[in-house]
Amino acid sequence: xxxxxxxxxxxxxxxxxxxxxxxxxxxxxxRNIFKKYDANNDNKLSREELxxxxxxxxSITPGFRADRGLHHADANKDGYVNEEEMDELVKYAERVxxxxxx
Length: 102
Description:
The protein has one domain (3-7, 23-101): Recoverin, domain 1 (Orthogonal Bundle), CATH 1.10.238. The chain has four helices and five strands. It has helices at 27-36, 47-56, 62-73, 86-95; strands at residues 3-5, 22-24, 44-45, 81-82, 99-101. The strands form two sheets. The protein has a three-stranded antiparallel β-sheet with strand order 1-5-2, with no helix packed on it. Strands 3-4 form a two-stranded antiparallel sheet. Helix 2 crosses helix 3 and helix 3 (62-73) packs across helix 4. The longest helix is centred in the middle third of the chain and has 12 residues, at 62-73. It is globular, with a radius of gyration of 15 Å. InterPro entries: EF-hand-dom_pair, EF_Hand_1_Ca_BS, EF_hand_dom. It holds the Pfam family EF-hand_7. Keywords: Calcium.
């Protein structure tokens, strides 16, 4: 049972003595999460599909992250992130610090 956040958070132990472990997603995990949101299985991610993926990752501004992800990854400027552009999307997500709290 984990909550996802877009930035590393410094969380003290809560009042019940539960501590939290924070770790970053690796490349393969991020790639698989993005691919999971390819709703129509066309092997490319639209802005809406990216927005849903960033929502899942815990972004508080998923529309903004989708726009920025497209800006950084969409090399051919067709409005989609395809398989060849996926590495740049993953680099962007890592650069902005997507993490999981478990």
